[in-house]
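Notebook entry, structure prediction.
Reason for the run: the old model in the group folder had no record of what sequence produced it. Starting over properly, with the input documented here first.
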Amino acid sequence: MIGDPRAEAIRWMPAEGTTGPGRAEPRPAVIDIDLIVANVQGAVIATDLDGRIVYWSPFAERLYGWQADEVIGRDAVDLLVPGETQSEARQIMGQLRARSWAGEFTLRPRVGHPFPLRIRAGPVLDQSGATIGIVGVADEAVRSEQSPAPSTGTTKLLTLGLILATGLMALIATILVLADRALP
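New structure, fully documented this time:
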């Protein structure tokens, strides 16, 4: 689980060309996984296979209005999906056990009216390939009529960001599973 003090930090060396005259010598850098996820510019939510929330990012707190400690353990569909679309949401959640999904879905915040979000989600696999949970990244999909539409370049960057964030979450989940197995 993200935030587990037993989880190891990600370590890497500076990229080639970052040393030399006037440049720092290569040295290991330690980045905390929570820090990485906290900086993803999208609401990152992970659930167990029963749809109970097991991770709720700081961006999700800002987007939806609930703090993590208020939602951990709660059913994601019951919490976030308006009643008229819960059946469709549960069908998508069932599909996420086997494959990724991307699309637009209307979710509700703690206060205010439901609003459309762009969502990318997929299964979290353990080292053996078994699905152990689901992770998704969401951001606002539709701008108000008063706001200018994003340029094609901006839209492409946002899409790339969501793809990278989803891949990052899969990587983090794999690292956590491996770290958990390595600990006594």
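Summary: Residues 1-18, 143-151 have pLDDT under 50 and may be disordered.
The old model has been moved to the deprecated folder.
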